[in-house]
Amino acid sequence: MKKCSHALRLGRNVSRASLPGCLPQGRPWQMPIVLGVLWTMYLGGLSPGEVLAETKPSSWPPRPNIVYIVSDELGYYELSCMGHPHFQTPNIDRLAAEGIRFTQALAGSSLCAPTRCCLMTGKHSGHTSVRTNGGGTPLRADEPTIASVLKQVGYATGGFGKWGCGGRGSTGVPERHGFDIFFGYYDQVHAHSYYPPYLIRNSVEVPLPGNHGLSNGTTYSHYLIVEEAKKFIRENKDHPFFCYLPVTPPHGIHDIPETDPAWALYKDKPWPLDARKYAAMVNMVDRHVGEIRDLLRELGLEEKTIIFFSGDNGGHEYFRDADHPRGFHAPNVDPRTGQQFRGGKGNLYEGGLRVPMIVCWPGQIKPGRVSDLLWYFPDVLPTLAELAGATPPADIDGISIVPELLGEDVVGRKQPQHDFLYWELGGQIAVRKKNWKAIRPGMGKPWELYDLARDIGETQNLAADHPEILKELIALAEKAHEPAVEGDFFAPELNEKDRRAKFGDEVPPEQVNVTMVNRLPQDGMIPRKFYTILSCSSESQSNDRLARYAIDGNPRTWWHTQFQPDLKRPPHELVIDLGKEFTVSGIRYLARQDHTWNGTFKECEIAVSKTPDFSEATTTRVEFSKTKEAQERNIPPTRGRYVRIRILSEINGGPWASAAEIGIVGE
Question: What whole-number distance in Å separates Cα of residue 194 and Cα of residue 175?
Fold first, then answer.
């Protein structure tokens, strides 16, 4: 049954097949409430927001100001309220003591851009437009976000920090998606420097005097971002506002001014330098959380404002060594018990998805609560929409957690639960239903099954013991996935300039090959829409260099073979299924479009077959050159459906293979 983008969300227990037309699943509203709302709208001519306000119980509080703070890469256990001895976070601890801390709040994805898209749009990563982490992939022009939903009911909307949902010159820039102002970084590569030559305000460059990129400069960008957020709050103190603060710290490059008070706490610790800087950056973020709260108190807005504080994805195991195999600060290890979450940033095990999540609203949220409600980033949009009296878009996957925040007695209904939660990231897929979690850790790899109620560390694979449960979860995953439809760039050179700004003048321009990218010519090529990756010998999941990127049409993403934790050596293989038989007469290859040559193909064997086992294949040996431009190599015309590229050697003699794009010539 096809999906309707305009259908109103109905109750979770209502069958789509029993309704006229097409209605998506999984929403908190119950049928009687929705029908009553529709009838009231029809008779009274009220807007959706007014209708929602009319149907709220009298015990509901007035709609609040909303501050949402995201600390980039902050791990679940990297707070002093979690018992971590390395960190001092008194303001965040106080936020938790005066509000509610969630133990099962999960990110939308385990990398920066895709998780932010889930947060902003209320969709899981099987429905979002931004599912990769390279190249400033944009939202589509018509996609609603939290900001556009709140703006429709009179909120001022401001964003300050790292956007990640569309680079400059694209349909995904924040000012096209409901933000009155966004100040900071649009592209995540730009955000890798705290001393860039400029930041962005509504797509316009704001120069930062004295900055030269990387770690060299006099104007620390994070300070400016926080001050702009405070300015926004002051300017909008007299009417409702949404202040979104996706700050970059403690994400690397790990830099903090030596004059910052947080550095004084850590500069003499007997730790590696970057581990000291990281801890100081966390303390700095904590101080700024305190400053935001002080400002709200000064303006008389403390009890009129709800504050959310979270990480963006699971913790990154920085600064690993023999004595610290899970990272020096071990973001996914309970410092009190030693209990571990498996994995971390970049994968879909619990370590890649668990984030700290704290919500505080004095006078409305009971203080000191710890909740085990299972929820994730797609739930933020409908939650904020309900608090603001706005109507969420019809095609979201999230559910409102307002009953859990304010109390079921206040809201007048029970907290709904998810039928299931879903994630995808390249070749990785994960599905969770209550305590059961199925995960496919990579393309071509077998599914795994875990009972998180008994095995939070995901150490006991129960796939063989419970095949029916696994089958059910795999079926849910298949239903949850739709092909990604990304936005567009109309001026890609602006985004490329921002990505190069990370380096400023610290790296010669000829060594930063991000200003332009080459592309494969499409003439004579079998249309890419038919391609799928049937198998690959390996892919680098740790840094999101997946096999499917070799055929995704985006030269800014690329496939790279595995190099950690174990190095996979040549020969390397990639098998492409063309979907049906064609006469194949050549192959086009585009090397990775950054400033390195790692993995660039040299000697290859190209095999074409009618069957996936290649039992009767025609094989041709070809050799590629050292160039970033597209290359084509001819082979004898051969009828077949499957193409196997076997990479025998790399252009510089290295053990890797990589490809920005591969195309098959034929008819």
Answer: 23
In a domain, 166, yes or no: no
CATH code for the domain in which residue 102 is found: 3.40.720.10
Q: Is 634 domain-assigned?
A: yes
Distance CA 20, CA 347 (A): 39
Q: Report the range of poorest mean pLDDT among 147-156, 279-288, 513-522.
A: 513-522
Which of 387, 416, 445 finishes a domain?
A: 416
C-alpha 530/C-alpha 532 separation (Å) is 7
Does residue 639 have a pLDDT over 60? yes
Answer yes or no: is 262 within a domain. Answer: yes
- Residue 129 maps to a domain: no
Q: How confident is the model at residue 48 (pLDDT cuts 50, 70, 90)?
A: very low
Q: Are residues 271 and 393 in the same domain?
A: yes
Specify the higher pLDDT residue, 252 or 518.
252
From 416, 440, 470, give the residue that closes a domain: 416
- The pTM assigned to this predicted structure is 0.75
Write b or e for each residue in 212-231: b if 16 or more Cβ atoms lie within 10 A of its Cβ, otherwise e: bbbeebebbbbebbbebbbe
Please tell me the total count of domains within the chain.
4
Q: Which of 216, 130, 213 is nearest to 173 (CA)?
A: 130
Closest CA to 481 of 132, 4, 126, 125: 126
pLDDT digits (tens, 9 = 90+) for 572-596: 999 999 999 999 999 999 999 887 7
Q: What is the DSSP string of 525-551?
A: BPPGGG-EEEEES--BTTTTB-GGGGG
Please name the helix (run of DSSP H) or strand (run of DSSP E) that holds residue 632, with its range, or none.
Answer: strand 631-647
Displacement of CA 445 from its chain's centroid (Å): 22
The verdict on 348 and 468 lying in the same domain is no
Q: How much helix, strand and coil, in percent to the nearest 5, is found in the chain?
A: 25, 25, 50
Reported as a single tens digit per residue, the pLDDT across 430-481 is 999 999 999 999 888 999 999 999 999 999 999 999 999 999 999 999 999 9
73 with 51, same domain: the answer is no
Residues 6+ apart with CB under 8 A from 402: 383, 386, 387, 411
Q: Which domain holds residue 635?
A: 519-666
588 and 451 fall within a common domain: no
């209605």: which residue's tokens? Answer: 23
Residue 555 confidence (pLDDT): 87
One domain, residues 349 and 472:
no
CB 331 within 8 A of CB 295: no
Q: What pLDDT, on the 0 to 100 scale, is given for residue 17?
A: 30
Are 567 and 449 members of one domain? no
